Amino acid sequence: MNAKTEQTQITAAKSWRMWVVFLLLGLAVAGILAKLLSLYWTDQAFLQNQGDARTIRTMLIPAHRGVITDRNGEPLAVSAPVASIWADPKYIDLQHPYLSRLGQLLEIPHGTLLDRVGSHPERRFIYLRRQVTPEVAEAVRLLGIPGINVDREYRRFYPTGEVTAHLVGFTNVDGEGQEGMELAFNEWLSGEHGSKLVMRDRVGRTIRHIRSIQDARQGNELQLSIDLRLQYMAYRELKAVVEAHQADAGSVVILDTHTGEVLAMVNQPSYNPNDRSRLEPAALRNRAMTDLFEPGSTVKPMTVAAALMTGRYTPDTVVKTSPGTMRVRSATIRDFRNYGDLSLTGIITKSSNVGTVRLVMDMEHDRLPRLLQNLGFGQLSQTGFPGERTGHLPDLRERQVVERATMSYGYGLSVTPLQLAQAYIPFASDGVLYPVSLLKNEQDSAGVRVMPPGVGNQVLNMMETVIGPEGTARRAAVEGYRVAGKTGTVHRIGGGGYNREEYTTVFAGVAPVSDPRLAIVVMVDNPKGREIYGGEVAAPVFARVAAGALRLLNLDPDRWPEPRRQVAGR
Questions:
Q1: In this structure, are residues 214 and 194 in contact, taking their beta carbons and an 8 Å threshold?
Q2: What is the value of pTM for the model shown?
Q3: Which of 259, 322, 448, 570 has the fewest beta carbons closer than 10 A?
Q4: Is 297 a catalytic residue?
Q5: Chain-centroid distance, C-alpha 359
Q6: Widest CA span in the chain
Q7: Which one is catalytic: 297, 351, 352, 414?
Q8: CB neighbours of 18 closer than 8 A, spacing ≥ 6?
């Protein structure tokens, strides 16, 4: 083979290899172009969604729960900004040097923290700590640990603490009402969370806000009827008497007799809604609306009112109570002592059981139960408060003579402190009963007449004698004001019937008599020691509470001291 032929063969071989290279390069370029076209035209939406799924997030915008205030705008429940710390285990490096510092900030032991985020690598969301302060949240954010995130939320705070705990209630960690008005008006107070689109980096940090999807709707404000000044004062007095007499429990209710609004409602024992770590279940009860007791002698003014409503009695009608006892079938009714002949006014002044029994036996069998029902006994107050109880008002038949007799002086039926306070409103409004409200009324309440005109005023004047020198509640007197009311002392009911060693003491009253504005009930359950009667335990609390309330509301005194006589020559 000559040199020319050999050179031609070498050139042909190089040319063939170059064409192969060019062909392979062309195929590669064509494949890349085809893939690009495919990605652009066919898979663009899919890839865009996948990319967004890894970077675009919908972030919750927490709504602000509505504020609860007293009638004067003082805050009782507010929502404070806090933060939640959560982890995405996929991005957390368990060897990160700042994890120990994170545990210190969140008060989580280092081992517990590692176990919590390391034992669930498949999860994308784990709460580490809820409702931390903004200062702690900022410290966590500055650590810059990949996979550790901070979200804003709100925590409910109760500035008045245990003073309004039973009425206001509280929420759980998610801001849902659990007790009290927080529960009753949960939907009204709750806002509606909003949302927005944000872009986050690969470790979950928000790097850009894209757009708002839905604005958050803040919760509505709730204005209660209570006056915080009266609430504090009543709570202080109740707590003092419960501690002084080592009582099991107690309640005080103050109503506005013009509107039916609850101006104060306090209970013992209470609790701190801001720290429920040591909460006893029994302390949760709003006893003024959930605990029942027999009202005892506080029902006697209603029995006298029922007698006056027959038209056969006047305040001066005399009733024979001698010899201080009487038999009603198999039962023996007793007075504290033999009071002899008593007028209707004297029956209330001396708190005569025999007197009220003689009155009720002279009426139609259903007259007193009908009046008690009209006064709200055995019924809900329609406030909407969760757990409120109706009490018990028996439907007596004509043949149930003993039951009618004991009902006349407050045995055989049960009420709550709120029901008893409402029942005293007609004595202050000359026979008109107003519905009870836990919310501030924006317009005048519509009352219902339950007694003929004049009857309520007559009974009110009779009850004023209870505080006088011949009455059973001289310690209920308020300097500078005329007050009226009635004591009650009843045996507590135990497993085997009435416990003769334990009592519930009550005082229900109205002030001031000349222009009644307040109906107040004080109930102290099972006081211990030498003083156990309503006139000794509950009446002094009424005096202090009424005095404080009358002055705080700036009501004019209506009992001026008698002028001193001038002695000649001095």
A1: yes
A2: 0.83
A3: 570
A4: yes
A5: 41
A6: 170
A7: 297
A8: none
